[in-house]
Design a protein that fits this description.
7-stranded antiparallel β-sheet, alpha+beta, about 210 residues, 5 helices, single chain
């Protein structure tokens, strides 16, 4: 959540590529990065708690996104953005994060560096699960978190020149508020929107 806060102050294993899209992946502009993030219209059953916002990646924001020695993983990054939602029944909260890079190679090289960091945020009693055929590479973990063992899940996906994350946690004691299926749906929406943006289309994928 520190990532979301920093931005607001400013205003499963991999596999072969399956979801290739119809166009060539290109570096996204700041506006395309913002539009990649789901908004209220894309999130049926959820209410926005932080609207999509994007900033240019610089020395102020790199430590928030890449809190690793020398901010590894942020090399050749252009923009990052985030949006956040609370489920209508208040049972779950999710945050979307996008980092746009100069090239597919830059995003590819950053992937393992950042997953090594983000993938450990779920605690010790976690398990991996499959996100299905989205992006060129993808990982996901889910496990208990909080005093009552409420579930928390994080996903990371590479789609072309972007790295994408969803971070979802239960907002109450309901241990069924965050499931593999619900997290998979969130990651899929974000990946589809990133593919649409890189194909030159206006992102329109919805939950």
């Amino acid at each position: 959540m520190a990532i979301t806060a920093a931005l607001l102050l400013a205003g499963c294993g991999g596999g072969t590529q399956i979801d290739t899209g119809s166009g060539k992946a290109v570096p996204l502009t700041k506006e395309q990065t913002r539009k990649t993030l789901p908004d209220g219209g894309a999130m049926t059953g959820w209410k926005a708690s932080a609207r999509p916002a994007t900033v240019k990646m610089n020395k102020l924001y790199r430590p928030a996104i890449c809190p690793i020695k020398n901010n590894a993983g942020c090399e050749s990054s252009r923009f990052y953005g985030t949006s956040a939602f609370r489920r209508d029944d208040g049972a779950a909260i999710t945050t979307f994060l996008v980092v746009a890079y100069d090239s597919e190679q830059a995003a590819r090289e950053a992937y393992d560096v950042l997953w090594d960091y983000y993938g450990k945020r779920t605690g010790q009693r976690v398990k991996t699960f499959s996100l299905g055929p989205i992006g060129e590479k993808r990982d996901a973990r889910i496990g208990p978190s909080g005093f009552h063992g409420e579930p928390y899940a994080i996903t990371q996906v590479r789609v072309g020149t972007t790295l994408l994350w969803t971070m979802t946690n239960s907002a109450d004691k309901d241990k069924n508020a965050v499931t593999e299926d619900s997290v998979r749906d969130l990651a899929t929406v974000l990946a589809k929107r990133a593919r649409q943006a890189q194909n030159g289309d206006t992102p329109s994928a919805t939950l």
